[in-house]
Design goal:
The structure is a homotetramer. With about 290 residues, the first copy, chain A, is an alpha/beta fold. In chain A, about 30% of the residues lie in helices and about 30% in strands. Chain A contains eight helices and 13 strands. A seven-stranded mixed β-sheet of chain A has the order 7-6-5-8-9-10-11. The first copy, chain A, has a four-stranded antiparallel β-sheet with strand order 2-3-1-4, covered by helices on one side. In chain A, strands 12-13 form a two-stranded antiparallel sheet. In chain A, helix 7 packs across helix 8.
Chain lengths: ~290, ~290, ~290, ~290
């Protein structure tokens, strides 16, 4: 398996000898650890590890490797997931009318910053079809009314299933998603909210930011849960504003922050650097070799 | 009045010829405009101006100048206030147990960054007396219980009055202030809240920030109004944090942001750069000559 | 001239009565001042003003207006330029192989954030032709060798002239531009340098940033002058990095900063908010009504 | 050794089984790993580890532990250092005339943010004696002229030696330090430079920043080496400025950045989170349990 890596995300209760035990397990299988990051939540005693392995010297099948880890992990109560570098994750983007986040994701995918495939773009409006066409990505327009919401969402999840989608990105998709949908893609739907959560949850955050007279505006990328804008935060950022900016200015200025924050969160997810723990995220750092 | 300046803060409804009219008024009095900043709130049609005048060539009394401006402003519905550079504003600092903001204000006053006098420090706890002593500032400890709150607040306002206090700074003062007190010092009490408002209003913001899993923490300096943490924001800032930081880390890291934000807000107020408009602030920029 | 505005950028030596004089001049012509910003450079005594006028009530021709201002300004030594809102500036983008800045400019132009036309894209490489095609912008590939440099640059300036280009944006164009070209477009060529100038002038800034072990990397947008990377800076920004990032990571992370900084600088220029003063820029703030 | 921790900083060439080997070594001694961070420099193949151990169950002496690690590390070419939590590092602060960094360090030490003792303050000027007195720290004034430089530096190093100083902090000490002094405290002298290095090395950075017209100013904390302002950078930060700020404004605004950056660097050093590698630093993150 030359040039193939595996990234394991691991969690369990902390105990003495854990690092030594886990790293030794992989060492004895003859595998080189390229990168190892860990974190212990002192409040809950939960231990988290991200391990990147070189599989060049793997002497048996991936399935075997996974079985052995399962066996090894049983007495420790180890939970884990693995991502292999020879699999390219498949991402669906859901949009409404605003194009900036969509463009940024498509460009970063094309430039190689986001290592994924984007087999389809879904929207409840026809407005952004031209962007999909520019990048030659299939575009499905599924308008939603109160009456058709359930039916259209069924179509969306069917399309996601047919296209073997691993990650759903809500790139300014202005529809609330049902809990059935969310359950299907638990911790695999990333939304961008155009405010610094928990400030300005819900609708019209820029107008409310203007009215409140804040001196910075922000954006928040988070996993979607049943509670609107309450899911685990992956990434946030802000930008300074002044009294001179009206709601429309804030909305325009905020666009840059939204797209930065969203693409950083998507990148972290695609690189298996995020573990959800209760309503918080552990986000391991990226960089060379990570 | 050599080397004396006046800063006028002016507001009225916007209308044609306003800039020309006002600047002409001062020009015809033979006064040089050193700096002139303005802002029109397009939503409400309200006009705001900050004007810095060189009074070297003032040929009559300040009182006269003020009377003439009042006369001139009547038909325009002009509201204005003035601050003369030969008057040094007097600031009282209220604290509880945390020393960082107090130290920062005292040091910046001593270094000349904050042009004011600090005739007294008030506290509901004795803990910070040593800081007051280090800087040779009178310290009054007025412990507050449910029963004594009214009485102690009366003592505080009396002390403020005796010392001719112009600005009250709540430098992590952990007591809610009564509306009577607030009315006395309307738009002259600045509080530092240890969160990025309107997120985490109220108590224990760092613990709640940790629990919510935010990726940045912040601080907000605002004028105190009857609604807790709802007053007009003067300045805000944030700092990036990660999952590795517990509530105590956030509290420690936040201290630096709190003191930066508070001292910038106090400086803006002392330099007459802030106008309150509904629940927002117009904060004119500082810098050379402003 | 309903719904038409004019933005005047004005400079002269500071003197008493200047604000009153200039604003009065326009008031007496019956024109409403929508926005007025000013700045005096205390070191050189130079005065700068940005004035936005509503031309709805203009009772004579623009030419007339300009002539009157020229007349008025003579005794004051006034230098000025004007931009009318009914003229859409024409921008040429020069690129080499990196697509991120080009995409960002094209998207922001299409979304209306950058109010300009982009009649052509020029490159010394064929790589980005597909981007130009996605946005239906004519693309000219003019490869440059040591021998053909002069000839190709002549072709470039000819194309710029034919297309009535007002502003040239070097969006990661990796060729040094001759001083003849620069003279033709003085203070009208904006370059993005991928470092926080004056640090890491010249080639390979990200590699050198890595080697120097800096903890932040940045980008700088500036007007191009004969001295490489020495022109007046319009906008800069930085992003935090750690030892974990190699040169390629820095280059990737830097891309986002580069495109933010470049598009902000281009926007400021297009909105007539920049005045060059010696080797510095006065950049007036934007926002509602500016 | 209840409640005692040890932090080991370890480096060697990377090889298979390193993490497993090292963590196993400590595990087999019966010691719990509280925190483990690592980094591999892909360019040089160098491996770095920070390991925090709980010594509660240490069954033999520290000296024994160290000998065993030395033995274990020989075949691996391991270099390491250790810091025990029951030893409080001793810090000397060198200053000239500016008080802000000195105040910030003293306050943060007193508040417990910087876990160290500060047995003495040294200066080439008498100006800051009052600050030392406020905090009851011995103050030594050692004025330096061209003639007395060598002699005074000898006195300084003698004082540092007498007081068993572990770390020397140059908190705006405006004297160049001789290479003999630097050799004595290799990677144990931290300086704050009032610019974003490598921009504006040397004298008068704020004036030069003004003249160059930069839109952000910064500060850099670095270990002192023989080459002025060329040593390994520990921490940097910047703050946004505009054309409105003159050199004095930049100097004043910069003070806040300087003190933030310096105290963060000193804190990282005191917590044994910094490893110098060639002219770069590996700075491991802090936070709960680190």
């Amino acid at each position: 398996m030359k040039d193939t890596n595996a990234v394991f995300l691991i969690r369990c209760m902390d105990k003495k000898g854990l690092v030594a035990g886990i790293t030794n397990f992989f060492y004895e299988l003859g595998l080189n650890i390229l990168n190892c990051q860990q974190y212990t939540d002192c409040m809950t005693g939960q231990y988290f590890m991200r391990l990147k392995l070189d599989l060049s010297d793997l002497a048996f099948s991936k399935k075997d490797l996974e079985n052995r880890l399962t066996e090894f992990g049983k007495p420790l109560g180890l939970e884990w997931s693995v991502h292999y570098s020879d699999y390219v994750p498949r991402v669906a983007i859901l949009v409404s009318k605003a194009s900036h986040c969509l463009y940024d994701l498509l460009v970063k995918q094309r430039e190689g910053t986001l290592k994924c495939e984007i087999p389809l773009i879904l929207s409840n409006h026809p407005d952004l079809e031209y962007v999909a066409e520019q990048f030659r990505v299939p575009f499905f327009c599924l308008p939603v009314t109160k009456e058709t919401k359930k039916e259209q969402e069924a179509k969306i999840t069917e399309l996601l299933s047919i296209h073997h989608i691993d990650l759903v990105v809500l790139a300014r998709y202005m529809q609330i998603i049902s809990s059935d949908f969310i359950d299907l893609y638990r911790n695999r739907i990333i939304n961008i909210h155009h405010a610094f959560l928990p400030a300005f949850q819900g609708a019209n955050p820029y107008l409310r930011a203007f009215q409140r007279g804040v001196k910075m505006i922000g954006a928040t990328a988070h996993y979607v849960t049943a509670d609107l804008d309450e899911g685990p935060i992956i990434e946030q950022d802000v930008v300074r504003v002044t009294h001179e900016y009206g709601p429309d200015d804030l909305s325009r200025i905020g666009r840059d922050v939204e797209m930065m924050v969203l693409s950083r969160a998507v990148k972290a997810h695609l690189e298996s650097r995020v573990i959800v723990h209760e309503n918080r995220t552990v986000v391991f750092t990226g960089g060379i070799g990570a």
